[in-house]
Amino acid sequence: MRYDSDSDLPDTVRNQLPAPAQAIFRQAYNAAWDDWQAPEDPDIVHSGRDDAAQLAAWAAVRERYERDTADIWQPKPAA
Does the residue 56 lie in any domain? Predict the structure, then answer.
């Protein structure tokens, strides 16, 4: 299911990520949700649309954020 706003995100996401990272998560999740297609080959094991969208969303967050020593998500330093 798509997320229409950051307030619709699961509590686990909203409680962990700062607002800008929540927006990244939501946008990446929705894009992956829209693009997902089940494999045509029945022998290919897939975890499903939600799992694929979750993986894509967390990957997008990790591109720009990282956890600090206190386990709090912070923007990555500029390269």
Answer: yes
The tally of domains found in the chain comes to: 1
Question: Which residue spans within 8-78 are E strands per DSSP?
Answer: 65-67, 73-75
Nearest to 34 by CA among 16, 11, 50: 50
3-state DSSP call for residue 36? Answer: coil
| pLDDT tens digits along 11-25 | 999 999 999 999 999
Look up the domain containing 19 and give its range: 9-37+44-74
In angstroms, the CA 29 to CA 65 distance is 16
CA 39 to chain centre: 21
Per this entry, what is the length of the chain? 79
